[in-house]
What does this fold into?
Amino acid sequence: MEIAFHIGANCTDDDRLLKSVTRNLPGLAEQGIRAPNPARYRRLLREAIQHLRGEAPEPGTRDVLIDAILEHGETTERLVLGNPAFICTPARIFDAGRFHDLAGFKARSLRALFPDDRIEMFLGIRNPAAFVPACWDQARGRGVDAFMAGTDPRGILWSDVVARLREAAPDIRLTVWCDEDSALLWPDLVRALAGMAEDAPVEGGQDLVNEIMRPEGTARLRAYLAAHPPATAAQHRRVVSAFLDKYARAEAVETEIDMPGWNAALVAELTAIYETDLERIAAMDGVRLLRA
It folds into this structure.
C-alpha cells in the first residue's frame, strides 16, 4: 500500500491542502485512494510513536493502525494523511537547541510503524524570516529567548531538516515546496499528494488563490481560464501569477514581521540564506523540489 503523508510544516498551508484533496474524494475512491478524517489518525499516530520510544513496534501494530484509520470494510491502494504538527508543535521548533530536532526521530518512527508500505512524505517550507515569527506567535506567550533556545536565526536551514529526514528513512520519497509558491502550485500539489495523474482535472485547484485574491479577480480569473484553458501547468502558473499581481489582497500576501530584536537587515540576510538553501535541497538525492 502507498501512504502519502503531508508532514507540515507548521504555519504554512494549515491543512488547506488536505482539504483540497478531500474535495476530490468521489473520484479518488474509484481509484482506490482514501483521505480519512484527520480525527481518525492524528492522535492515534502520535501516541503510537510516543509508545515506540525509538524501539521496534510489536508484531501486528501496522494492521491495527490501518484498521483504526479506515472505515469498517474499506480497502485502499493509497492512503493520504496529513498533520502540520507531525514533527513538532510551533512552540517546539527549537527544542534541544536545534531546528526541528525531532525530524529524524519522527521519520524513523513512521517507517517503523509501516515497515512494508511505500511511504511518501510531503513538506511545505517557508522563509525562516517569516516562519519563525509565525511560530513564535503561536507559542502562547513564551518569551522569545525561551522560544529560540539560543538558536542563531542565521543557522536555520531547511536543508538540515530535509537531510535528517532522508538519513532517518532513505527509502521514503520526499516532496518539498516553498509556501511562498503554494498559490501557483496548488493544483500540482493536490495531484501530487493525492497520487493523481499530472494532467488530471482537480477540484479545489484554485482554493488558495480564491482566499488571497479579491472577488473581482477571482471571477475574472475563472472566466479567463474557461475561455483560454492553459495547455501546460507552467502556462497555468503564469496566468495565475499575472492575476495575483493585479488582484491579490495586500493583507493576504504581505507578511508583517514583528520579532523582538529583528530588523530589516536581518530579514534580508535570512531571505538570502533561504534562497541559497533551496539550491541545496534541489540537489539532494531522493528529494523532489516543486517550484513555481
